[in-house]
Each structure stands twice: as structure tokens, then as C-alpha cells.
Amino acid sequence: MTSVLALIEGAKEENLEPNQTMLLKDIERYIHDLSYAENFIQLAKLENIQTLNIERCDVHSLIYNAVIQIYPSAKLRDITIHYPETNPELWILCDSSLMERAIVNILDNAVKYSDEDTQIDVDTSVINSVVEYKLAIKGVVFQKLIYTNYLIALSKVVIL
């Protein structure tokens, strides 16, 4: 979906006829609607999961993979994602696909609701044996509530 949005943004820069511009706007709106539907599907899957595939995961890899997935939509809005990996060697036991999906969702929301031409800072910390993912936009921590919603489903995370 992000790739289609990127193509639409590129096409908007061309000299298009009014009916072509209208078509692109309609397609863009449908893509955004599909994105919201996909988020609800992912949440339903998360809530109904029966068996977790718990494995040892590198936190930095999970975040890096999520950043790669969100990069095209961030680039469209001139948003840079800064992740300095301040905690070397940070391993957890978790379901990697669920954790990565949660991080992607949080990053995606940060990109969607940020001003254009800004920077999102991603950092991790360990507090009382809990790994905390922090997203800050212009120095302000981004909606902790979003992360808290995932806490119940991801409560089997253990720091190694």
C-alpha cells in the first residue's frame, strides 16, 4: 500500500488532466481506507492468537525491520526516523512477528500523525526488567497509550 501511495505522490507532480487527478485522489483515499482495515485485522489477529511462538530476539533487529517497512511512507512526508541503538546487546524472548507488527503499528501512527519535514526519534531503555520503546517527535514522547494497548498481548516478553 505504501508503494502505491508513493507512486501516486510521484504522479501528482506530473501535468495531469482533472479527471486523472480526481482518479488519483480516489485511489489514495481507498488505499488509506485499506490501511485502516488492515490495522483492524492485525489487531483482531493479535487479540485472538492462541499460541505464541516465543523465541530469542534482538530488539535492534525488530526495530530496524519496522523502520524499513515504514520508511517509504515517512519519506513521502519528508520525515526522518532516527534510531541510534543506545543499548547494545538487547535481547528479549517474544513472538517476533507480533512484536515487529506492534512496532510497525506504532511507527506508522507516528508518521501518519506527525507534521511533514520532521524527525522521529526511536530509542529503547530497560526499566525494572522491562524493555521500553520510546518514540519522540520533536522531543515530545509520542502517545504512550498506543504502546500500552499492546502491553497485554505482549506481556510474555522477557529480557535476556
Please characterize this protein's 3D structure.
The protein has 160 residues and is α+β, with helices and mostly antiparallel strands. The chain has five helices and seven strands, in the order ααβαββαβββαβ. Residues 143-160 have low confidence and may be disordered.
Could you provide a short overview of the structure?
The protein has 160 residues and is of the alpha+beta class. The protein has five helices and seven strands.
- In whole angstroms, the N-to-C terminal distance is 36 Å
User: What kind of oligomer do you see?
Assistant: single chain
How would you sum up the major sheet?
Answer: 4 strands, mixed
Average pLDDT rating: 76
List keywords for this structure.
alpha+beta; three-stranded antiparallel sheet; 160 residues; four-stranded mixed sheet; 5 helices; single chain
Give the arrangement of secondary structure elements.
Elements: H1 2-12, H2 18-47, E1 54-58, H3 59-76, E2 80-82, E3 91-95, H4 96-112, E4 119-127, E5 130-137, E6 140-141, H5 144-151, E7 158-159
Parallel strand pairs: 2-4
Antiparallel strand pairs: 1-3, 3-7, 4-5, 5-6
